TrEMBL record:
Residues 225-311 form the GTPase HflX N-terminal domain. It comes from Leptospira weilii str. UI 13098. Residues 314-391 form the GTP-binding protein middle domain. GO terms for molecular function: GTP binding; metal ion binding; ribosome binding. Residues 363-390 form a coiled coil. This is GTP-binding GTPase N-terminal domain protein.
Amino acid sequence: MTETGKPVKFQQKENFCISKLSGNLNGLKSNQIQRLKKISEKRIREDVIISQDFARALCELSLEIGKQIGILIDRSGYVTHVLVGSDNSIEIPFLDRLRTSEARLRGLRLVHTHLKGESLNQEDLTDLALLRLDYMTAIVMDSSGNPNGYYSAHLNPGSENELWSVLPKKYPGQLTEGILLEEILEIESRLSRSKRNLKDAQKENRAFLVGVYPERNVGRHPSLSMEELKELCRTAEVHVVDTFIQRKNRLDPSTVLGKGKLEEIILKAIQKHVELLVFDLELTPSQAKKISDIADIKVIDRTQLILDIFARNAKSRDGKLQVELAQLKYLKGRLTELDDNMSRLTGGIGGRGPGETKLEIGKRRVEERITRLEVELKSLRKRREINRRQRKRNELP
């Protein structure tokens, strides 16, 4: 049965993932936490954003605790996450690698409360775009905790001018049943067509170049460094769509640019169908992972780009081995078993092995591969030395 008591059109899953409760739980009473956990057991029709009864329960509890409450709902109507935020925002947890293809939506919609009667804000819309959510909805309420309005938005694939579509406010009783899933599937179909058409039309990777330089010039001028990076991209057959230069003396330890500026660049990348961010500096492993988690697109730095060019041009056996060894040693400190950015680096720019092969980057095998390469290179050097001595002994060049 649904939340409204109507029969469900789909079959019950025998074993489905227990929902996760996360966020700002400080100061909550035990009975409030239990009510939040109860929310995770609810089931919603797949063809409606949320039922009126469920919305009322969310709003009443949200008003009581003075914090936004959000739920992530999959396409079968299961609540997969219950999120507790502050009075004016909510943080979505890392969603692993669920449906990570850029040609598909996430398969989740977010419904959350707004305590101050405001519509969807920039943070909501940014999350919608960066996470490729099916739908984003904010519920506003009156002073008694009764829902009195719904603001929704969805992505607008194929448009470079409007990344998302913000829908008119709906009031209680206007949440039409029977069309939501169809609408989501139609949006996803447009997204797939857009990505497919772009892939057919282009032969090169599309990239944004990002440079962060000191406010006072030290060494090369930023414009010269960026021009050099452009030339490296041309050599690697990467099409540079745009460049971004930021002047600051202290890099953000987590995202280099700062989260706000990074999100601004990523939103532009989504609009321009950019699939690669190239940084004009060497990223630390934690920076590369953090940026990739936010961006959901491939992220490489100057060193990886140069190694990719070497891999492309390596011809001799010795050269190929040396390039692969350099790549694996560089990636070694950046590998974790579930590092999503490393999965994006398998093949293509930044993940191309010598001779157009894909790099073998499984963490459990990389040490073994490095050892084998070092042994093989040592053997090659010995053979070269023996051949050199024989030529010298025979007075050959």
